[in-house]
Amino acid sequence: MKNMLILLVLGLMACVTLSVSSQSLESLTKSQVGISMRAASGNPFNNTDALKDIGAGETRELAILDGPGKIVHMWFVPFSSNIRWPRALVLRIYWDGSDVPSVETPMGDFFAVGNGMMATVNSLPVKVSSYGRGMNCYWQMPFKSSARITITNEAEDATVGTYFMIDWVKLPKAPRKVMYFHARYHQEIPQMGKPYTFFVGEGNGHYVGTVLSSQNGIGHWFGEGDDSFYIDGETIPSISGTGTEDYFNEAWNMRVHSSLYTGCTVFEPRAIDARITAYRWHIPDPVIFKKSLRFEIERTGFIINRKGETISESGSRPDNWSSVSYWYQDEIAKPWCEFPKYSERVNKEVVLHLPQVIKTMKHSDGVELVVNPYNRATYTKPWFQALNNEVGSWIEIPFEISEKGLYSMTLFQHLREDNGIWKLFVDGKELYEAGESQIAGGYEVDKVQQLKPEEINTTLDFYNIFQKDEHEDYIYGQRRERKIGLFEFEPGEHTLRLVCVGANPLSVHPQTGKLRYNLTADVLSLRKLEFVDTDKWVREISESVKVDQH
User: From the CB of residue 22, how many other CB atoms can be counted at a distance below 10 Å?
Assistant: First the structure.
């Protein structure tokens, strides 16, 4: 019976895909109107095809399109030494001479991956390949007279570059009625008892998509809030849902996947600082409004005290949310919210580019530390490698913390066929020791929120980062963000020690037949988190629950 149900679901998914594909193919049997055009970074005379060296705070104009016309496809491949470039690089699009951007959003969030992270997306209007590197947009964007596309690098200390192509159709005459495409980024500081606002708009249009990114302020499940659409001035929403994951067409939690209309591009285990991004495209089911629309979701979920007791299954949570809303409207809409500064969009972060700090590292005999001066993953940035031939070898990376606080430690690994498996120690303490009660390496404030053994990275396998069906060309040095854990650090010097404990069987050398034990990495990151007093928050939730019961 189970197999029959699986086959039925797969059959329905195939029917949906074929239906969408058939519609697209059917349009090709009809005569097309207009002239196909392209604005691009490409140079036909040499291989300097990228737009390079966009400095901190600098805006570059990618294209001015002389209409009438419509944008049918955009492709970007950004690169930077800044590991958070998806949040630093801002895309803006202006229609028909307006000085108000109808699209204003960080590049990563626009392409359905939030929190400055990178991931693969495979949806109908947005496709991101190569684990975050090749960004494609197929939203249709008509305009009457002109379109202007810009990007701005809002990073404080790093340049950005990008390859790009903007495909558009020049039309013989302006359409009588144009529904302008809009996309806007938004974020809110959490407030107890208040829902999160995704969109507020006035006029005539239809809402077509949502990207939500969350960063957990406390442990456990964040997504019990119901969605509500207030259409044309309603005080009671005509569209109301049953839970956050339900809105994104999931059920009982979320898991990483990507499909035509819905997906979850990032999902970390349910702990403090767990980062999640989900998208929902209202393409077959747009939310239509004639006068106004307000869309919000309750920011509620599980609240658990130190004893492991559930205080509430739908309590107000202090999670940091950010979003992009997508809609069409028959006029160029005014921004309904302020666009936050880059410093407000990302955590404070201590970033160690390992090739730059190689001289400060210690290592055991037999280990050779080298720097490759060229990295295709970031175009200009070198990468670091520890050459090693045996188990038990170690390297130690010192780092300095200037502000006391809670930090999320991440290592950006590189996929290579000659890498081994390494165990981690922070300030001499082995991570994830047997019997320890930890939310994630080293942080013991919320002990009841423990990760399951299978969810804990006891070691880092620098070879087998990707699934077996995800082949990557390791020569290009693709980096992947790997969270190590949460730590309370005092100001001063600290260390991360990595000890080789083995090799992936797939790492065997094709000629010698020997296993390989190297380590290849790029960046050590320590993001400073806003500390949430869990006990205080639980007390306030407990009091609100008591009031509700009375």
Answer: 10
